[in-house]
Amino acid sequence: MIDVKKISFFLFFLCILSIQTLTPHAEADAKEGYKRIVSLSPSITESLYALDYFDRVVGVTDYDTYPPEVSFINSVGGSVDPSLEKILYLKPDLVIGERNFHHDLLEHIESFGIDTLELTLHHRLDDVKEAFFEIAKKVGRTDRAEEVWKDIERGLTDKRRHTTNNLQKEASMLVVVWHDPLIVAGGWSYIGDIMKAIGIKNAAESKEYSFPAISREELLSYDPDVIFLVRSKIGMSTTVEDFIKTIEGLPIKAKEGGVVSLEAEVLLHPGPRVLESADILLKALKLGLREGELK
């Protein structure tokens, strides 16, 4: 005759054994985290790289240029209009995008049972920091994020000290990202926040937008000491010739050798490469000022 009590106890014991056996594997899987990530923005890709999670990235956009290894990763299309078909083909377990551009797409991707993360990036430096830590939390790299951001804060403090000690007089700089219409880094932008953090006066600080369009009259009223034209490797860039045509007839100080054009793609990718951005801004200021005003 079958002993029901013994069988019940045996089944219970098997359940306990199964839990004890499977739990370590489950924890190991959790530590491994996501294995196939699609990034829908260069800023997100660069964040994953800073978090030592780049080896999990299987898809990026046409506009990704950093790190150099990104050229070997499949592209899913543009940053604004990535292809759903290309994303699904890569079989991701996580897709990270920007709220302003990818909200509807991410919702659609979720309907396929794929995890997503939606971020706000293109505003203030605090937004960049918040997004960086959101990514870190999602992939289990919060400790690494803390290390990276502490280095950023220390670096900004050091660069401000250098600017304060070496700038002979207060000088303003206008950062231009396009010439027609004239679009600049405003006072409510991560570029403006970095400038403020390192002691550079943003000529367009009073514009409470990220990237406002300004008139010729506003440019004349700002009369910056230096005008920095941001060039990018991919996409459209403003040339010095085009910009000079835009400001033709305006008696502004920067026309006398203060217009600087540098490749500065990092300024267009708001992410953890903050100190590189700061260095480029300082380089532009130094090139634009007359010799001796910034050592």
Automatic annotation (TrEMBL):
Keyword NAD: no
Protein's GO biological process: cellular response to iron ion
InterPro entries hit by this protein: ABC_Transporter_SBP, ABC_transptr_periplasmic_BD, Vit_B12_bind_prot
Entry-linked SUPFAM superfamilies: Helical backbone' metal receptor (SSF53807)
Keywords of this entry: Signal
Domain of life according to the entry: Bacteria
Domain Fe/B12 periplasmic-binding per the UniProt entry, residue ranges: 36-293
Keyword Ligase on entry: no
PANTHER family from the UniProt entry: MOLYBDATE-BINDING PROTEIN MOLA, VITAMIN B12-BINDING PROTEIN
Protein name: Periplasmic binding protein
Annotated organism of origin: Acetomicrobium hydrogeniformans ATCC BAA-1850
